[in-house]
Amino acid sequence: MQSEIDKTSQKFESEIEKIHNLEDLENLRILYIGRKKGILNSLFDKLKTLPNQEKVVLGPLLNTLKNTIESKLKAKLNSLSAISGNKKIDISAPGKNSQLGYLNPLTIVLEDMKDIFHHLGFTFVDGPEVESDVYNFQKLRLHKDHPARDAQQTYYLDEDILLRTHTSSMQIRYMENNAPPIRIISPGRVFRRDQIDATHLPSFMQFEGLLVDKETTLGELIGTIKYFIRECFGRDIQVRVYGHHFPYTEPSIEVEMFHPKLNKWVEMGGAGIVHPEVLSGVGINPDEYHGWAFGFGWERLAMLKYGIDDIRLFYQGDKRFLEQF
Amino acid sequence: MKLPLSWLKDFVEIEHKPEKLAEELLLSGTKVEETAKSGEDYVFDLEITSNRADCLSIYGLSREVSAISNKTLRDFSTNPVSGENETPGFEINISNKSLMPYFGAVVLENLEIKPSSSQIKERLQKCGIRDLLNLIDITNYVMLETGQPMHAFDYDKVSGHVLNVRESTDGEKVTPIDGVVRTLKAGSIIIEDNEKLIDLAGIMGGKNSEVSEKTKRALLLVPIYDPVRIRKTSLHLGLRTEASNRFEKLLDNEGPAKALERAVELAENDCNARAFSKPVFRLPNEAKNSIEFDLNLIPKVLGLHLTPDQVSQILKSLGFQTVYLPLSETPTLRIDIPSWRRDIENPVDILEEIGRIYGYNALPTTLPSGTPPLRTEGRDLVSVIKHTLVDWGFLEAVGYTLVGKTDIENLGLDSANLAKVKQPMSQDFEYLRPTLLTGLLNSARGNQKNGFNYPYFEIGRIFVEKFNPENLLTNQPKILAGIYPTQDFYTLKGLLEDLLNRIKFNGSLVFRDGELEFCDSFQTATVTAGDSGLGKMGKLKTSVLNTFDLEGNWFYFEFFLDKIVSFSNTAVSFKPLPKYPSVSQDISILLPQNTTIEAILNVIDSANEILLVDRQISDIYTNQSLGTGKRSVSIKLTFQSPEKTLIEDEVNGLRKNIEKLLKDGLNCELRS
């Protein structure tokens, strides 16, 4: 038996040298340590028939042989696998891409705004696009015959129901249902009867900001707007405001920023201190609370930020447009 | 409003260059939209806000310039008018005082009507007003200079020399000086003499009484009209003039006095005019308006610290007289409001005057100092939905709210009960969209023409039916909808299930046969959870795709956004991981094709077997060899116990129980 063990060992050593692929290696493995008909299997069977003195000596030798064969087979397997994995490939050939989709840049801008305004403690809320004349105009001090409301610019569905002309109606809706302190941003669609061209559509998007608190000033309003514009366009951007008029704010201002590429002042939107009559109209005491609000064009912001020149592109869903953002 | 700087210089010194002056005006609230050069002169084209009727005049703008540049404003001095006659030579009757509450009027005789002098012509032209004849030009000139419009009638064409001011009735006709006959509604202000209508008051004079070269005597009327009626008439007729633009705003009720005197002075110089008598005036008799202004508002609202003197100075420069009341509880200024500032009603209006003259850009700016309110927004699930879909290859569409009838009918929908706008700009933008589908299809077609086939989604509002006060808030739900290029129902079904999984949808989702007008009958589903109808999906009809010029197979889906979000379970409670391994076994059954998977799963679930932790359909197989109308369904059952590892015999037993239930409950055969 001893000589059989030695011979098996030598034979294995010479045979494993000749193995160069995984298939042959597997066959060799089965030949030597395959469960049913492997050479070592039959040697172990033979061991069982030997007298004890021989078993005690040959047993461990046979085990050692088995372990050696197993570990050498394993090492060979590893080195063969590594080699076959090392075939040269062209690293510069294209990767297998999936077809990615794209968000509309309006959504990207909104997410940026959420980032900026969440930082200041503002909550985002949404409101109805079809509104009543009362919420869109009257509660904002734009009474039925006010010269500031031009009937040609409003889409009416009937006498008192219209497509909202600004997001300012949300100020009223929110204040009627929530007590101060209030900090909200309300982005959404608004509608104006305009001739359709590269910068005008029947509807466009605005976002409204409103803050109502025991103490707040015009300085905080302007500071907040400056902060937002600078976070959006760059920390060095110049911002200026000038006097204007809205029936629902007093004082009222317009906001402009100096656009570095266009090299001129561009309008960003309007803002102002909420008129005390608007506050008392929603049940907030104007002697106790002060508020301010602003309204900016949402597409306009995206157009200024990205240099988009036609508002209709936001609505056409062209992949060649969307994938740029 | 056009402002020639040369005219401005009549009343205030201009120190700055035009660009600088324009900037100062802009910052204080008067926007210069354009600066034009006219010879040596500059003409500003200004945007005047609707609350500042006083700025629709050269003098009013001069006052603004004097306040912002700290230069003295010259008085607008005029001389009282007198004439030889005791009686005025005319009568004015006003049916309702509110129509024309204040006015001034005088007859001018001895007139020589001819073209104006060059200075008046030039100034009118710079302001964009055509020059005609000297007396008419003077009325326009004084209107521009003072902001007070006025009208000259040919006195001899005014029958009975009487002006009867009344409201029009429905259907009355008038022919103003442009020669176009206008039909009026009830409520417009008109003037008639003994015989005929001679004036569309506040808007345009009548052709039959206009001044011409032959006019020898004129009746000059300088009125204040009811602004609301003027505006209504102007809108109704679509007729807007320099005069009506002023009359529809709140004018200085004392304005007619100086304006009339100025006009007469110019007419004496240019038309050889002579006043027939002293003018007839009806002017306000009320006490001056005054406001008690709490000076503490300035730091409180503007965030600015000014002394009472500084405040007084700013207000004085605008023509407000102030008195400091030191003995009142809080430091107060009593401010007299001049008659030309009818936009000043309460303390916040004063705050605006102070702020804009001081300069808003000089205010100290900070971020909000108060405590932010508690946040009520939950996790942004809309963002999760959008990002998930985009990562799976969808493009995000944003569609138009207003759509055309054609698009609606091309989907097989009836436009009769849909909401629409009364005055659409075009037929393509008339109806409020009842579905997001038209926008999605149009976007997909555009891309297909460029060689791309992408799925699309949109989150936006739809408008179910016509609006009324009761359904205002509920008739415009937010919808998540999309289209997907595939022929396989189950591809989209799986995607939607995965999407709801992403927002932690916590409900039993059930897909059943459903209907959509624009989808094929047997491949359309309603999606519900409990009693809640969540949405639908279906294969778009080829006929619909054809009308939208879209090729290939497309599926559509829609969900009520608020409903699916309401099922999102963010209150997760961790369940410990199982200690012991699970064991799976497959069963296959042969059963009629029209027995649904839902029915099979219901039978399995009805076993209420605690140890059955999952059941998955692993295969659905149809083949002729199975027999007609039959199919084979394989189900992988997974068993697991929290207390021990189940042995093969136990699992076999559990499986056999389920097999028996299926056999008994569904009339099916077991296949090994």
TrEMBL record, chain A:
Residues that bind Mg(2+): 250
Main subcellular localisation: cytoplasm
Record's cofactor remark: Binds 2 magnesium ions per tetramer.
Gene3D superfamilies found in the cross-reference section: Bira Bifunctional Protein, Domain 2
GO biological process, any: phenylalanyl-tRNA aminoacylation
Location of the protein in the cell: Cytoplasm
PANTHER family listed in its UniProt record: PHENYLALANINE--TRNA LIGASE, MITOCHONDRIAL (PTHR11538:SF41), PHENYLALANYL-TRNA SYNTHETASE (PTHR11538)
Family designation: Belongs to the class-II aminoacyl-tRNA synthetase family. Phe-tRNA synthetase alpha subunit type 1 subfamily.
Protein name (record): Phenylalanine--tRNA ligase alpha subunit
Gene, per the UniProt record: pheS
From TrEMBL, chain B:
InterPro entries: aa-tRNA-synth_II/BPL/LPL, B3/B4_tRNA-bd, DNA-bd_dom_put_sf, Fdx_antiC-bd, Fdx_antiC-bd_sf, Phe-tRNA-ligase_IIc_bsu, Phe-tRNA-ligase_IIc_bsu_bact, Phe-tRNA_synthase-like_B3/B4
Gene3D superfamilies assigned to the protein according to its UniProt record, in alphabetical order: 3.30.56.10, Bira Bifunctional Protein, Domain 2 (3.30.930.10), Ferrodoxin-fold anticodon-binding domain (3.30.70.380), Phenylalanyl-trna Synthetase, Chain B, domain 3 (3.50.40.10)
Annotated FDX-ACB domain residues: 578-671
Amino-acid positions noted as binding Mg(2+) in the UniProt annotation, renumbered to this chain: 343, 349, 352-353
Enzyme nomenclature, EC number: 6.1.1.20
Main enzyme class: ligase
Name of the protein described by the UniProt record: Phenylalanine--tRNA ligase beta subunit
Annotated gene: pheT
Protein's GO biological process: phenylalanyl-tRNA aminoacylation
Principal location: cytoplasm
Cofactor entry: Mg(2+)
NCBIfam families according to UniProt: pheT_bact (TIGR00472)
This protein's GO CC annotations: phenylalanine-tRNA ligase complex
